[in-house]
Design goal:
This protein has helices at residues 21-32, 44-54, 66-80, 103-128, 157-175, 193-200, 206-216, 225-236; strands at 12-16, 36-41, 57-60, 85-88, 137-142, 180-187, 190-191, 223-224, 247-250. The chain is of the alpha/beta class. The chain has a single domain, classed as Rossmann fold. A 7-stranded parallel beta sheet has the order 3-2-1-4-5-6-9, with helices on both faces. Strand 4, helix 4 and strand 5 form a beta-alpha-beta unit. Helix 1 (21-32) crosses helix 8 (225-236), helix 3 (66-80) packs parallel to helix 4 and helix 4 (103-128) packs parallel to helix 5. The mean pLDDT is 93.
């Protein structure tokens, strides 16, 4: 019996912020479905551990540094001969009233979440244009439901994620003729280490708050990292070949409408 082909068999994918959380979930799904995956993260110890766990490769990357992006892309092309998929997942969370936020803190969030995604798109497009005619590629930018609506304390975070949303559409429009697709994924509240770190800072019982958030979600639970991994896999695969410039909201229905 012949081996069943994976959904992204023979594709080469880079996942930034791939060491944990949503990034690791994307790595796991892509690897399981046949892709050659390069985990990129500023945390080399965690990144190498994740890569080893899923049969991927690891390269250290600070997404804010263009020279590092150039080096990563060059190394991937030298090793694999192409780039099919980029998952711009690296990001940091922020919540602070605008009148208390420092310029330095605001610029740091923009640098990681938005400028890092811009640099990834820029250099991925350059690499994907070298793929054979008609092959193109898929760029998947992790935004947030906060990129669709405001957030108390979200001067920096919402600005960065809203910027990622429209960066995605611009990249999609510019590069459709090259068959390079670009879509954004907008997670709601997901069960990740970042979410747990936020809960730890809340006074009271974090388990009760987690349950409350799940109860307030139309589908009745907090999202899982695997929910995002599955969406990334779809967008990386040829199953989404006619999808570009789209906003893929994965939030259990939380932003679909008012609960009354």
């Amino acid at each position: 019996m012949s081996k069943t082909q994976g959904r992204v068999e023979d594709k080469v994918a880079i996942v930034t912020g791939g060491a944990q959380g949503l990034g690791e979930a994307a790595v796991a799904r892509l690897c399981a479905e046949g892709a050659s995956v390069i985990v990129c993260d500023a945390n080399a110890t965690a990144g190498e551990r994740t890569a080893h766990r899923h049969g991927a490769s690891f390269l250290p990357l600070d997404v804010c540094q263009e020279a590092q992006w150039e080096a990563i892309i060059a190394q991937v092309l030298a090793s694999y001969g192409k780039l099919d998929v980029l998952v711009n997942n690296a990001g940091i969370f922020s919540s602070c009233p605008i009148d208390e936020m420092t310029l330095q803190a605001f610029e740091r969030v923009i640098a990681v979440n938005l400028t890092g995604s811009f640099l990834g798109c820029k250099h991925a497009v350059r690499a994907m244009k070298r793929n054979p005619e008609g092959v193109g590629g898929s760029i998947i930018n992790l935004s947030s439901v906060t990129g669709l609506r405001g957030q108390v304390g979200g001067a920096a975070y919402a600005s960065s994620k809203g910027g990622v949303r429209l960066l995605t559409k611009s990249v999609a429009m510019e590069n459709a003729r090259y068959q390079i697709r670009c879509n954004s994924v907008h997670p709601g509240i997901m069960q990740t280490p970042m979410f747990e770190a936020i809960l730890d800072k809340v006074d009271g019982a974090p388990d009760a708050l987690r349950t409350h958030i799940g109860d307030q979600t139309p589908l009745g639970r907090v999202g899982s990292a695997e929910d995002i991994g599955d969406m990334v896999l779809f967008l990386a695969s040829d199953e989404s070949r006619f999808v570009t410039g789209a906003e893929m909201v994965v939030d259990g229905g939380a932003t679909a409408g008012l609960p009354y």
